[in-house]
Amino acid sequence: MASLITCPHCGQRPKEEYTIKGDAGPKRPAPGAPEREWFDYVYQRDNPRGTLQEFWHHSGGCRRWLVVTRDTVTHEVFSVSDASERAAS
Amino acid sequence: MRYSALSILLNGLKGNKDWTPAWRSPAPKKHYDVIIVGGGGHGLSTAYYLAKEHGITNVAVLEKGYLGAGNIGRNTTIIRSNYLLPGNNPFYELSMKLWEGLEQDFNFNAMVSQRGVLNLFHSDGQRDAYTNRGNAMRLHGVDAELLDREQVRAKLPFLDFDNGRFPILGGLFQPRGGTVRHDAVAWGYARGADSRGVDIIQHCEVTGIRRENGKVLGVETTQGFIGCNKLALAAAGNSSTVARMADLTLPIDSHVLQAFVSEGLKPFVDCVVTFGVGHFYVSQSDKGGLVFGGDIDGYNSYAQRGNLACVEHVIEAGVSMIPALSRVRVLRSWGGIMDMSMDGSPIIDRTHIDNLYLNAGWCYGGFKATPASGFCYAHLIAKNEPHKVAAAYRLDRFERGYMIDEKGVGAQANLH
Question: How far is A31 from chain B (nearest CA, A)?
Fold first, then answer.
């Protein structure tokens, strides 16, 4: 894992300032969605060997939720963006 | 060749020139009754019990690296069956019973050492929880003793009993728990399976699963196509990757878990001890090194190396429990890729494809489960129905709401 992560708000910060939530892929279904969709959202994971988009919380900094795109084998970080941009897109 | 004290003596007198390799390195055949993907502990024990218990010997174990390269050689070697839940306890107790007879069974010295496993508690609430666990174990016929503070002190006087925040009040002790030499487990099972006719094929990576009319025909590998009647996955940290080849998505995240060994010390810790506040477990190897570990790093990873932040976290927990550890130098640390399931419990089950079987989701607990995992998986493959002690480890339990959440922490891989 990279030691320094570039937060879009705070700049380059040590990895220890962040809390990693996990895969940003699953989209929260509507409250009344079929159980199958909820099951997929809560339990099923692509768990890719390679590029993964992940939610990170800058808990020791600006406290914004971020989306970090990184490689799960090489640990290379490709991009870091604010989670709100992802929600808007 | 059968190993015995006499064979060691006689071969020693002859200059040790007559030893033969413990298993063959055959080229893959065109077709097998059963192909097992993954030559780790679980894959090898599955092959061994398929051959020994069910007489199915036309079996191949495909390993992408070499035997012992994965988690079977990367764990902290602890065995125990101190489980609380009915879905778990009989399974791990079967594993413990198999450990107890393993060396005689497969004629290999795996250095099974039942030196005891002690889980420390630090508060009244935790004592209640461990009392509950100990009672559940005893009701299942498993040995468990609740030790008070002075009994723990007599065993391990160097623990930080009067820690200001986390005083040690006692511990739950399982005398039959202990440690096993982990790579010898892989070698013993490999040798036992090979001698019964199983082909162990190393450096053979599965790259695809060929299917037709909803049935698996065989696997594409780096050594060409190999056909099979039944395909059994036992790929541990790479389970999601292999399952995806058959369009199967799993409730699993792959995480890195680190383990450590210190320089050799004089006899110091004579059982396995676990910290009740942080996540830390330690034992002492026969060479004298302290073997210890802690939490997973907490992020998805397929890299078999960990992060320094977690190293610091583990050592902090260790020093909180045993202050003298601050003077000990760590020799090595390494990482293994855990197949972390969403409830912290494993899966041994059939899949949506009739002749495709799944063994995955072992989280932290894969090593101690090695014999029972192979035993029950072989039963499932041979008879097409689950072994009774592994019947709860179903793939669809998440969907049906029958999670086996041993720690009671919820549905997220990095919580377990």
Answer: 17
Helix (H) or strand (E) holding A23: strand A19-23
Fold of A4-26+35-88: Folate-binding fold (3.30.2270)
Question: For chain B, what percentages of helix, strand and coil (3-state, to nearest 5) are there?
Answer: 35, 25, 40
How far is residue B149's CA from residue A13's CA, in Å, rounded to a whole number?
A: 44
- B95-135 confidence digits (pLDDT tens): 999 999 999 999 999 999 999 999 999 999 999 999 999 99
Q: Are A20 and B301 within 8 A, CB to CB?
A: no
Residue found under tokens 């004089």: B266
What ranges do the domains of chain A cover?
4-26+35-88
Q: Do A47 and B300 touch (CB under 8 A)?
A: yes
Q: Which residues of A touch B247 (CB under 8 A)?
A: none
Are A16 and B309 a contacting pair at CB < 8 A? yes
pLDDT number for residue A28: 93
In angstroms, the separation between the Cα of residue B260 and the nearest Cα of chain A is 18
Inter-chain CB proximity A22 and B240 less than 8 Å: no
Instruction: State pLDDT tens for residues B229-254.
Output: 999 999 999 999 999 999 999 999 99
Question: What H or E segment, with its residue span, contains residue A66?
Answer: strand A65-71
Query: Which of B250, B257, B301, B338 to substitute to test the interface with A, most A CBs within 10 Å?
Result: B301
Residue B59 has pLDDT above 80, yes or no: yes
Among the partner-chain residues B251, B298, B302, the one whose CB lies closest to the CB of A43 is B251
Contact criterion met (CB < 8 Å) for A46 and B240: yes
Which of A16, A42, A45 lies at the smallest CB-CB distance from B253? A45
Nearest to B241 among A3, A49, A54 (CB): A49
**Is the CATH code 3.40.50.880 the one for domain B113-178+253-340?**
no
ipTM: 0.94
Q: What superfamily in CATH does domain B27-78+182-251+343-415 come from? A: FAD/NAD(P)-binding domain (3.50.50.60)
CA atoms of B148 and B60, how far apart (whole Å) = 50
pLDDT digits (tens, 9 = 90+) for A53-85: 999 999 999 999 999 999 999 999 999 999 998
pLDDT exceeding 90 applies to what percent of chain B?
A: 95
What is the model's pLDDT at position B409?
Answer: 79
